[in-house]
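Q: I'm writing up a methods section and want to include an example of the input and output format. Could you take the sequence below and give the corresponding predicted structure tokens, formatted cleanly so I can copy it straight into the document?
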Amino acid sequence: MDPERVREWILATEIEVKQLDGKAVQTQAALAQARQRLILFHELLATLTKSPVRISDTDVAVGRTTRDRTIEAAAEILGEFERPMTIQEIHAAFVRQGRPLPGRGTPTNILAHISTSDVFVRPQRGVYALAAWTKEESETPDRKVASGDQQNDQPQNAVG
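A: Here is the clean output for your methods example:
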């Protein structure tokens, strides 16, 4: 394979990414405006009917920040693979599955969101797992023994 041809592909894809990134910003702005209109229409309806109209956060997708979406996506990926993964593996899964990437789309951008979330634990350097997995493991007798959590079954201060 010709390296120059691969460089052309890289250049073309970089241009495409820039264009799509610009469209994403426009789409986010349009989405925010549509959500505002939806809330205003609900408020208008409540005023006209003189009765409260219930609006849930999920109806207008309020609260779904980039952080929330990134944490949710990373948790889903780990759940699908059912094993701890490196940040590079998580990033690769984001890309393969076409999931939106935070920031500039690097593994570090994903890491910035998941490293501060209590949804994840870091069992070893550069490897991330679902915190629920460690809770499940710690509830089994084998895990307690392995981690030293199990108390000694011998009576304390036994008089012999």
